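QA checklist item 7 of 12: single-chain prediction sanity check.
[x] sequence parsed
[x] length recorded as 203
[x] structure emitted
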Amino acid sequence: MEKNYIPEVARMLGVEIGEEFDILDENGDARGWNSHKFTKEMMVNCMGGEARGWLVYYLLTGEYTLQKRPWRPKEGEGYYYIRSTDGFLSRSTFHNVDADDLALLNMGNCFPSKDAAEAAVPEMLAKFEEIKKGETCHIEDECCCKKEKMTECKMEYEDMMNALEKAARSSNVLSGNDEQQVLEFISELRYSEAGWGVWDDID
């Protein structure tokens, strides 16, 4: 029986099996269909499909890095949080109908263990100070910027696909059958992960 090295690869990259993460290139831009995670057999994307081999290759060579997704407690699961500006820790149980729990989760103040919460005290105290000074980075603004960037990227990709389709239709070289095959290929590429992967590399 062949040995499966996926669990070892996941540990080498600093994640557990099933733990979600994003893949970033050397400029900090997202690559592939985030988020990703390792199963016991392969690395999969957010759609549940097997991730592209070149993503794994670039992670292993260090050209790409992974960024873990913040831990999120499940309904009814216990968690630790920093309760006050003196670094005092408390434990609570997460309920997705509780505004206090959702607010703590939204600001990243939810931790799976006491040790994890203690390690995050300096970061959270700095956030508290920013909030008191009114210097918080509004999450809504950040999300809007990301949405605008994604929309812009999608429009550029669509423009490229439209240009290819127009060139194929106006070509005097392609026969009727060849032209139809090219148009079908462009249509498949327009909505495929492979097409976006090529576009990411060009970008």
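[x] summary fact logged: The radius of gyration is 23 Å.
[ ] second reviewer sign-off
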